[in-house]
Q: What sequence folds into this?
Protein backbone atom coordinates (compact mmCIF):
# COMPACT_ATOMS: atom_id res chain seq x y z
CA UNK A 1 0.00 0.00 0.00
CA UNK A 2 1.30 3.46 -0.92
CA UNK A 3 1.34 5.92 1.97
CA UNK A 4 -0.87 8.96 1.66
CA UNK A 5 0.86 12.29 1.08
CA UNK A 6 -0.16 13.57 4.51
CA UNK A 7 1.29 10.43 6.11
CA UNK A 8 4.61 10.97 4.34
CA UNK A 9 4.72 14.60 5.43
CA UNK A 10 4.22 13.54 9.03
CA UNK A 11 7.08 11.00 9.03
CA UNK A 12 9.83 11.97 11.48
CA UNK A 13 12.31 9.09 11.58
CA UNK A 14 14.47 8.66 14.67
CA UNK A 15 18.03 9.57 13.69
CA UNK A 16 21.06 8.96 15.83
CA UNK A 17 24.76 8.25 15.41
CA UNK A 18 24.15 4.51 15.38
CA UNK A 19 21.84 4.76 12.37
CA UNK A 20 24.20 7.10 10.52
CA UNK A 21 27.15 4.83 11.30
CA UNK A 22 25.28 1.78 10.03
CA UNK A 23 24.26 3.45 6.78
CA UNK A 24 27.75 4.73 6.05
CA UNK A 25 29.42 1.41 6.86
CA UNK A 26 26.95 -0.58 4.74
CA UNK A 27 26.89 1.67 1.69
CA UNK A 28 30.34 3.29 1.75
CA UNK A 29 32.68 0.82 3.45
CA UNK A 30 35.72 2.89 2.45
CA UNK A 31 34.75 5.25 5.30
CA UNK A 32 33.85 2.60 7.86
CA UNK A 33 36.93 3.37 9.96
CA UNK A 34 36.38 7.12 10.18
CA UNK A 35 35.10 8.62 13.44
CA UNK A 36 31.63 10.15 13.41
CA UNK A 37 30.36 12.94 15.66
CA UNK A 38 27.01 14.77 15.67
CA UNK A 39 27.02 18.47 14.86
CA UNK A 40 25.28 20.28 17.71
CA UNK A 41 23.90 23.19 15.69
CA UNK A 42 22.16 21.16 13.01
CA UNK A 43 19.06 22.92 11.71
CA UNK A 44 15.41 21.98 11.60
CA UNK A 45 15.68 20.18 8.24
CA UNK A 46 18.65 17.84 8.75
CA UNK A 47 20.62 15.93 11.33
CA UNK A 48 24.30 16.42 10.53
CA UNK A 49 27.33 14.35 11.48
CA UNK A 50 30.99 15.04 10.89
CA UNK A 51 32.65 12.02 9.31
CA UNK A 52 36.39 12.03 9.86
CA UNK A 53 38.12 15.33 9.23
CA UNK A 54 36.94 15.98 5.70
CA UNK A 55 33.34 14.80 5.31
CA UNK A 56 29.83 15.50 6.59
CA UNK A 57 26.71 13.33 6.59
CA UNK A 58 23.34 15.10 6.25
CA UNK A 59 20.13 13.18 6.93
CA UNK A 60 16.71 14.78 6.34
CA UNK A 61 14.51 15.01 9.42
CA UNK A 62 11.23 15.32 7.48
CA UNK A 63 9.73 14.86 4.04
CA UNK A 64 10.13 18.52 3.11
CA UNK A 65 13.91 18.11 2.99
CA UNK A 66 14.23 14.79 1.18
CA UNK A 67 15.10 16.19 -2.25
CA UNK A 68 18.14 18.17 -1.15
CA UNK A 69 20.78 15.46 -1.51
CA UNK A 70 20.04 14.81 -5.16
CA UNK A 71 19.44 18.48 -5.98
CA UNK A 72 22.80 19.55 -4.56
CA UNK A 73 24.54 16.64 -6.26
CA UNK A 74 23.05 17.62 -9.62
CA UNK A 75 23.49 21.38 -9.51
CA UNK A 76 26.17 22.58 -7.12
CA UNK A 77 29.10 21.25 -9.18
CA UNK A 78 27.78 23.35 -12.08
CA UNK A 79 27.22 26.51 -10.05
CA UNK A 80 30.24 26.43 -7.72
CA UNK A 81 32.92 27.52 -10.22
CA UNK A 82 31.05 30.80 -10.77
CA UNK A 83 30.56 31.72 -7.10
CA UNK A 84 32.88 33.83 -4.89
CA UNK A 85 32.06 31.98 -1.64
CA UNK A 86 32.44 28.28 -0.91
CA UNK A 87 29.40 26.01 -1.26
CA UNK A 88 28.93 22.34 -0.36
CA UNK A 89 30.86 19.84 -2.46
CA UNK A 90 28.71 16.71 -2.89
CA UNK A 91 30.60 13.43 -2.66
CA UNK A 92 27.94 10.69 -2.53
CA UNK A 93 24.18 10.27 -2.24
CA UNK A 94 23.17 7.53 0.16
CA UNK A 95 20.15 5.26 -0.26
CA UNK A 96 17.35 4.45 2.16
CA UNK A 97 18.21 1.62 4.52
CA UNK A 98 18.09 0.21 8.05
CA UNK A 99 14.58 1.56 8.43
CA UNK A 100 15.53 5.06 7.30
CA UNK A 101 13.22 5.94 4.36
CA UNK A 102 15.04 8.61 2.34
CA UNK A 103 18.16 9.53 0.41
CA UNK A 104 20.91 11.29 2.38
CA UNK A 105 24.12 13.07 1.50
CA UNK A 106 27.84 12.86 2.07
CA UNK A 107 29.64 16.13 1.31
CA UNK A 108 33.01 17.72 1.93
CA UNK A 109 33.25 19.28 5.38
CA UNK A 110 33.28 23.08 5.29
CA UNK A 111 35.14 24.80 8.09
CA UNK A 112 33.56 27.80 9.74
CA UNK A 113 31.08 28.97 12.33
CA UNK A 114 27.41 29.65 11.74
CA UNK A 115 26.94 33.35 11.04
CA UNK A 116 25.30 35.49 13.69
CA UNK A 117 24.23 39.10 13.83
CA UNK A 118 27.07 39.65 16.29
CA UNK A 119 29.55 37.95 13.96
CA UNK A 120 30.30 39.63 10.63
CA UNK A 121 30.44 43.39 11.06
CA UNK A 122 28.19 45.48 8.84
CA UNK A 123 31.14 46.49 6.71
CA UNK A 124 32.20 42.89 6.11
CA UNK A 125 28.84 41.26 5.39
CA UNK A 126 26.90 43.49 3.01
CA UNK A 127 29.35 43.63 0.12
CA UNK A 128 30.38 39.93 0.09
CA UNK A 129 26.72 38.91 0.29
CA UNK A 130 25.80 41.23 -2.55
CA UNK A 131 28.72 39.87 -4.55
CA UNK A 132 27.61 36.29 -3.98
CA UNK A 133 24.04 37.00 -5.07
CA UNK A 134 25.15 39.00 -8.10
CA UNK A 135 27.31 36.08 -9.18
CA UNK A 136 24.54 33.53 -8.57
CA UNK A 137 21.99 35.59 -10.46
CA UNK A 138 24.46 36.07 -13.29
CA UNK A 139 24.86 32.35 -14.01
CA UNK A 140 23.07 31.42 -17.21
CA UNK A 141 19.79 29.59 -16.69
CA UNK A 142 19.79 26.87 -19.31
CA UNK A 143 17.21 24.09 -19.25
CA UNK A 144 19.31 21.05 -20.08
CA UNK A 145 16.88 18.34 -21.07
CA UNK A 146 14.02 19.74 -19.01
CA UNK A 147 15.97 19.52 -15.75
CA UNK A 148 14.79 22.92 -14.57
CA UNK A 149 11.19 21.80 -14.29
CA UNK A 150 11.42 21.12 -10.57
CA UNK A 151 13.33 24.34 -9.87
CA UNK A 152 10.70 26.90 -10.85
CA UNK A 153 10.11 29.20 -7.89
CA UNK A 154 6.60 29.57 -6.50
CA UNK A 155 5.08 33.07 -6.47
CA UNK A 156 4.86 35.02 -3.25
CA UNK A 157 1.07 35.15 -3.53
CA UNK A 158 0.86 31.43 -2.77
CA UNK A 159 1.80 32.32 0.81
CA UNK A 160 -1.03 34.80 1.24
CA UNK A 161 -3.46 32.73 3.29
CA UNK A 162 -0.81 31.28 5.59
CA UNK A 163 0.87 34.64 6.09
CA UNK A 164 -2.36 36.41 6.98
CA UNK A 165 -3.21 33.60 9.39
CA UNK A 166 0.20 33.94 11.03
CA UNK A 167 -0.18 37.72 11.33
CA UNK A 168 -3.51 37.19 13.11
CA UNK A 169 -2.13 34.43 15.34
CA UNK A 170 0.80 36.57 16.43
CA UNK A 171 -1.14 39.78 17.00
CA UNK A 172 0.12 41.22 20.27
CA UNK A 173 3.56 39.74 19.66
CA UNK A 174 4.14 41.77 16.49
CA UNK A 175 2.32 44.81 15.10
CA UNK A 176 -0.43 43.22 13.02
CA UNK A 177 -1.35 46.43 11.19
CA UNK A 178 2.25 47.11 10.21
CA UNK A 179 2.75 43.49 9.14
CA UNK A 180 -0.38 43.59 7.00
CA UNK A 181 0.82 46.82 5.36
CA UNK A 182 4.22 45.33 4.50
CA UNK A 183 2.61 42.13 3.25
CA UNK A 184 0.08 43.88 1.02
CA UNK A 185 2.79 46.15 -0.38
CA UNK A 186 4.75 43.04 -1.34
CA UNK A 187 1.75 41.41 -2.99
CA UNK A 188 0.91 44.60 -4.90
CA UNK A 189 4.45 45.27 -6.09
CA UNK A 190 5.06 44.60 -9.79
CA UNK A 191 6.21 41.04 -10.42
CA UNK A 192 9.67 40.12 -11.66
CA UNK A 193 9.37 40.89 -15.35
CA UNK A 194 12.80 39.80 -16.51
CA UNK A 195 14.14 36.33 -17.34
CA UNK A 196 14.31 33.98 -14.34
CA UNK A 197 17.55 33.89 -12.38
CA UNK A 198 19.06 31.45 -9.90
CA UNK A 199 18.18 31.89 -6.25
CA UNK A 200 19.34 30.07 -3.09
CA UNK A 201 15.82 30.11 -1.67
CA UNK A 202 16.56 29.84 2.06
CA UNK A 203 19.15 32.51 2.67
CA UNK A 204 19.42 33.28 6.38
CA UNK A 205 22.19 33.36 8.98
CA UNK A 206 21.92 29.65 9.73
CA UNK A 207 22.96 28.87 6.16
CA UNK A 208 26.08 31.03 6.20
CA UNK A 209 29.49 30.12 7.60
CA UNK A 210 32.14 32.56 8.74
CA UNK A 211 35.88 32.24 9.26
CA UNK A 212 37.62 34.85 11.41
CA UNK A 213 34.43 36.92 11.37
CA UNK A 214 34.14 37.06 7.59
CA UNK A 215 31.67 35.30 5.32
CA UNK A 216 33.25 32.16 3.93
CA UNK A 217 30.55 29.77 2.72
CA UNK A 218 26.88 29.43 1.83
CA UNK A 219 25.28 26.07 2.62
CA UNK A 220 21.93 24.23 2.46
CA UNK A 221 20.74 24.60 -1.13
CA UNK A 222 17.61 22.51 -0.65
CA UNK A 223 15.40 25.35 -1.91
CA UNK A 224 17.65 26.21 -4.86
CA UNK A 225 15.58 27.33 -7.80
CA UNK A 226 15.07 29.75 -10.66
CA UNK A 227 12.71 32.69 -10.82
CA UNK A 228 12.36 35.91 -8.84
CA UNK A 229 15.56 36.91 -6.97
CA UNK A 230 13.51 38.76 -4.32
CA UNK A 231 13.29 35.71 -2.08
CA UNK A 232 17.06 35.85 -1.42
CA UNK A 233 16.72 39.38 -0.03
CA UNK A 234 15.61 37.71 3.20
CA UNK A 235 19.28 37.74 4.18
CA UNK A 236 19.16 41.54 4.42
CA UNK A 237 16.68 41.24 7.26
CA UNK A 238 18.32 38.35 9.11
CA UNK A 239 22.00 39.33 9.02
CA UNK A 240 22.17 43.07 8.45
CA UNK A 241 21.35 46.31 10.20
CA UNK A 242 19.55 49.20 8.48
CA UNK A 243 22.90 50.74 7.56
CA UNK A 244 24.39 47.62 6.03
CA UNK A 245 21.08 46.83 4.28
CA UNK A 246 21.43 50.08 2.37
CA UNK A 247 25.01 49.20 1.37
CA UNK A 248 23.84 45.74 0.31
CA UNK A 249 20.88 47.05 -1.68
CA UNK A 250 22.97 49.64 -3.49
CA UNK A 251 25.72 47.15 -4.34
CA UNK A 252 23.20 44.63 -5.70
CA UNK A 253 21.19 47.29 -7.54
CA UNK A 254 17.78 46.27 -6.19
CA UNK A 255 14.79 48.25 -7.50
CA UNK A 256 11.85 49.32 -5.32
CA UNK A 257 9.48 46.58 -6.46
CA UNK A 258 11.98 43.78 -5.88
CA UNK A 259 12.86 45.23 -2.48
CA UNK A 260 9.16 45.30 -1.51
CA UNK A 261 8.77 41.66 -2.55
CA UNK A 262 11.95 40.80 -0.64
CA UNK A 263 10.51 42.34 2.53
CA UNK A 264 7.44 40.23 1.91
CA UNK A 265 9.51 37.05 1.65
CA UNK A 266 11.37 37.93 4.84
CA UNK A 267 8.14 38.63 6.69
CA UNK A 268 6.35 35.52 5.43
CA UNK A 269 9.17 33.09 6.13
CA UNK A 270 9.90 34.67 9.50
CA UNK A 271 6.26 34.42 10.58
CA UNK A 272 6.02 30.83 9.38
CA UNK A 273 9.13 29.74 11.26
CA UNK A 274 8.09 31.65 14.37
CA UNK A 275 4.68 30.00 14.55
CA UNK A 276 6.14 26.52 14.08
CA UNK A 277 9.34 26.61 16.13
CA UNK A 278 9.49 29.58 18.51
CA UNK A 279 7.73 27.77 21.34
CA UNK A 280 10.16 24.85 21.28
CA UNK A 281 13.41 26.41 20.07
CA UNK A 282 14.68 29.59 21.78
CA UNK A 283 17.34 30.10 19.11
CA UNK A 284 14.75 30.09 16.33
CA UNK A 285 12.52 32.35 18.43
CA UNK A 286 15.27 34.94 18.71
CA UNK A 287 16.26 34.72 15.04
CA UNK A 288 12.74 34.98 13.68
CA UNK A 289 11.81 37.78 16.07
CA UNK A 290 14.71 39.79 14.67
CA UNK A 291 13.85 38.87 11.09
CA UNK A 292 10.22 39.93 11.46
CA UNK A 293 11.14 43.13 13.32
CA UNK A 294 13.71 44.12 10.70
CA UNK A 295 11.30 43.33 7.84
CA UNK A 296 8.73 45.61 9.45
CA UNK A 297 11.37 48.32 9.82
CA UNK A 298 12.36 48.08 6.17
A:
Amino acid sequence: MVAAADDVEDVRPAIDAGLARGLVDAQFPQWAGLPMEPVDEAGSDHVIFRLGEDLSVRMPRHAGAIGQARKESAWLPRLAPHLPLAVPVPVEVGRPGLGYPWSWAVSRWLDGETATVEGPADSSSALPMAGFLAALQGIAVEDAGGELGDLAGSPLAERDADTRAAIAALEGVFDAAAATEVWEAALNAPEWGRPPVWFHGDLHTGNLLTVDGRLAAVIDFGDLGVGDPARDLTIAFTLMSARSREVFRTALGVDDATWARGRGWALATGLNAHTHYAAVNPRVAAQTTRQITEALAG
Q: What stands out?
A: The chain has two domains: 12-110, 114-297. The first strand starts at residue 36 and ends at 38. The chain has ten helices and ten strands. The beta strands are 36-38, 46-51, 55-60, 90-94, 104-108, 113-114, 197-199, 208-211, 214-218, 225-227.
